[in-house]
């Protein structure tokens, strides 16, 4: 008789399920809908979106770390705001003769991007003439081939005195090569090239590496 108890219990459960089918099946449908929604969130597209969002966060964090490392803010000098005048030819920095600054000192963004040269000095503030000054010019070299040229400043940086046999390409780096600045400081990259019909270079524009309107910190080369 004891062996029949499991069969009897099973039969009772089956009867209850059949009689209560009206309430059991809707519950099953609700559970099924919830499971479908859950697994839909695990589709390949959802996973791809999550991965892209994660990569964007990692990219933003990496950019922030690289910026901090390149500027080394602990040793940098603050740039005073020029708003609302926004004079690109000159900037004022929070360092002067009290910190050992002298006329002619070189000013850079990061360690090797040329901003300009100190023009005047007071005990606590110095004025820097930037590469965007219309009178700025310096000898430069371009790219791995070390093509010689002259860079002239202003609102638009241009290369002149380029050999007609030189081969220039957009995106190539332009760096200092004259005795008036330390050798190899970055000035920018070639942005556009125009040629005459005879093959001579008509106009070569250089895009600076930094935006002077948002420049907050610089370094001094004493």
Could you walk me through the main structural features you see in this protein, from its secondary elements to its overall organization?
This protein is α+β, with helices and mostly antiparallel strands. It has a domain at 137-212: Beta Barrel (Thrombin, subunit H). 28% of the residues lie in helices and 30% in strands. The chain has three helices and twelve strands; from the N terminus they run αααββββββββββββ. The protein has helices spanning 5-19, 21-40, 44-71; strands spanning 77-78, 90-93, 106-109, 113-121, 126-130, 137-142, 147-152, 157-160, 173-176, 186-195, 201-207, 217-221. A hairpin with a 4-residue loop joins β4 (113-121) and β5 (126-130). It is flat and about 50 Å long. Mean pLDDT is 81; it is low at 21-29.
Which strand order spans the largest sheet, edge to edge or round the barrel? Answer: 1-12-3-4-5-2
Q: Strand share of the residues?
A: 25-35%
By CATH, the architecture of the domain at 137-212 is named Beta Barrel
Give the CATH topology of the domain at 137-212: Thrombin, subunit H
* Parts with pLDDT < 50 across at least 5 consecutive residues: 21-29
The largest sheet, given as strand count, sense and whether it forms a barrel, is:
6 strands, antiparallel
**Helix share, percent:** 25-40%
Distance between the ends = 104 Å
CATH homologous superfamily of the domain at 137-212, by name? Rod shape-determining protein MreC, domain 2
Order of helices and strands: HHHEEEEEEEEEEEE
Computed CA radius of gyration, to the nearest angstrom: 34 Å
Structural class designation? alpha+beta
Kindly provide the name of the CATH class of the domain at 137-212.
Mainly Beta
User: Quaternary status of these chains?
Assistant: single chain
Number of strands: 12
Global mean pLDDT: 81
Question: What characteristic shape results from the CA principal axes?
Answer: flat
Helix tally equals 3
